[in-house]
UniProtKB/TrEMBL annotation:
Belongs to the 2-oxoadipate dioxygenase/decarboxylase family. GO terms for molecular function: dioxygenase activity. The lineage of its organism: Bacteria, Pseudomonadati, Pseudomonadota, Gammaproteobacteria, Pseudomonadales. It comes from the Bacteria. It holds the Pfam family HGLS. PANTHER family: 2-OXOADIPATE DIOXYGENASE_DECARBOXYLASE, PTHR39479. Its EC number is 1.13.11.93. It comes from Pseudomonas kribbensis. Keywords: Dioxygenase, Iron, Oxidoreductase. Its cofactor is Fe(2+). This is 2-oxoadipate dioxygenase/decarboxylase. The keyword Iron applies.
Amino acid sequence: MTVQPFVSPDLIRQRFSKAMSDMYREEVPLYGALMELVEQTNREVLAREPQIASQLHSTGEIERLDMERHGAIRVGTATELATLARLFAVMGMLPVGYYDLTPAGVPVHSTAFRAVHEDALQVSPFRVFTSLLRLELIEDPELRAFAQSVLDQRSIFTSEALRLIEQAEAVGGLTESEAGEFVLQALETFRWHHSATVTAAQYQTLSAQHRLIADVVAFKGPHINHLTPRTLDIDIVQAQMPLHGITPKAVIEGPPRRQHPILLRQTSFKALDEPIAFTDQTQTRGSHSARFGEIEQRGAALTPKGRALYDRLLNAAREELGDFPNEANASRYNALMTRHFSEFPDSLEGMREQELAYFRYFLTDKGLMAGRPAEVSLQALLRDGYVKAEPLVYEDFLPVSAAGIFQSNLGDAAQTHYGEHSNRQSFELSLGRSTIDELGLYAETQRRSIEECLKALAR
Ligand code: OOG
Ligand code: NI
């Protein structure tokens, strides 16, 4: 009997990401237009800025740039979340980070499923921002019970997907043909459905409570609501969007424009109004908007110290603005951000020396050719040109930015105040496992890169 080898989870994720992108392109034509704009902008930036090109070559990011994207979904129950965690695990995606969106008036808390090792990220950086609706925040007990009962009746996974998850868990992987089938079956969970699970009136009641609640409760599954490509210059894309008939949100979320980008900058455009058939309708007479477009630019991952500085400056700018950023105050907000962030060093040396960002270390040509250097401290190796430091790219999300993206797509009417506090413990209880601390992952990648340099130089 020949034993069939397993397909690596990284390759399953790579295939799934491609399949998801193809499905989304077919369902949302604007996504194709956006992808083209981003690809064209990236080509221009690489041609214009040899330094960025060389940096992306050093880190290998150039190879993943075109396949880089994240999606987002929202689920309604603990069982759905826990099963999703098992589904993503088949593709080597683990829950990283905890994001509480309730302080910003969005009744969810979230994590990001993604690969955790730099080698795996290199094969496919695909990530999914996954939110769990906090039903306990619905005050009206009757409505809460109704929402719960609707959710309890649905099954968001195909039976074949569930079988393949169990198979992978039982034997430790999937064979070639199983992996192919798994990708097709898993995709079904994320598909858009034109028919709802509730009547038009029930939808209205849910929506009146919060549009997000209607989005999660009234449908057969957690449709993917956006798929975001990575651009090398988000300001260019933001400026170009209107020329392509796309209206972006008023401000770019995240840090201001810098010479050396940090963390994550994001912008989005409004959700599409899509025809829906409610259960008391035979035709698609109603409508619902959930799917929107988003673009992001990624920069250096920050250390706890760098992140604390980022949070402080962001809060200071927002406090001075005195309101959520919007159309009317956008230019004032941008000016405030630039002013406050002038305190954040904008050079690689500055960020490295003050330990504000994580870096990856690589041997230079000199290092590759050299014999064993006399001094092997990292400082000396950098000074003498044996190794070079490149910023480690941020792979995660930002809660304030995510809230801004949610808000702009739900409309301002959705700004509710929730007194309830962050509850990572209850999220992890629903998830069925703990979430991984992203800072630990960056520190590990940085440490491994130093170790590899030293090992190579010792030979
Ligand atoms: C997710 C919004 C957050 C991001 O990139 O921060 C987000 C959602 O709307 O479900 O996509
Ligand atoms: Ni997003």
